[in-house]
Design a protein that fits this description.
mainly alpha; single chain; about 70% helix
Amino acid sequence: MVRNRLTLAVLLGSPALITAMMAMLFRPGAFDAQSGGSVSATQLVFWLAFAGFFFGLTYGLLQIVGEMAVFRRERFAGLSVSAYVLAKVTVLTPVLALVAGVLLGVLRLLDRLPAVGWGTYAALFFTLLLESIAALGLGLLASAAVADAAQATLALPMLCFPQVLFAGAIVPVTQMALVGRFISYGMTNRWAFETLGQLLPLDPSSGDPALAPFASAFNGSALTGWLILAATAVLFIGATVAVLRRRS
C-alpha cells in the first residue's frame, strides 16, 4: 500500500477532500444554544455518520477482487482465509482511525462541532471507528463476491444509496412507510447517525421543531448503537471469510 503511491493518495486524499467540503457546506456554530437543534446541526450529524461509512466501504471495496488470482494460488499453498481477511482489517483499521480522528478534529477546530469535552469526543471517535469497520467489512464482502473491479465499482452506489435513504435523516424513521422502517433496521448508517445524535447536544425535548421528528432516535442509549455496529462488523467480516472459502 505504501509503495503504490496512487492508491495511497486516494486513501488519504479523499478524506481530506470530504472534510474540506463539509467545512465549506456548514456554517460555524450550528450547535450554539441560540440555534438549538437546527436543521443544519442534524444534517451535519448525518453527513458525519455517512462519511465514516463511506470511508470504510471504499477502502474495502477493491481490496480482494484485484488479488483473487494471487489469493487462490496462496490458498493452495496453505493460506488461511481467516488470517487473510483479518490481515486486511488489521492494516486498514488504523488508517480508518486516523481518518476519523482528523475528521472530528478539523470540524471541531473550525467550530462546525461543539465544545463538549474529551469524553464525548472519545465516544464520537469510537462510534465513527466502529461504523467504519462495519462498512469495511461490507466492502470486503462485496469485493470477495464480485467477479472483477468493474463490478465492484458498480456496486458502490448500490451499497451507498440505501444507507442515505433509510438512515432516518432525510425521512425520520417514525415517518417512513412500514417497509422502509424495516429496511432501516439493517442500515449501519442509521445506528451511527442515531448514536452520534445521542452524544451531541441535540435535545428533542427542547421544543425545537427541527428536532421533534427525531425524538425516538436521539433519546436512546449509545451502548445500543455500539453493540449493533460491532455485531454488524463481525457479521460482515465472517460472511467475507465464508464467501472466500466457497470461492477458493
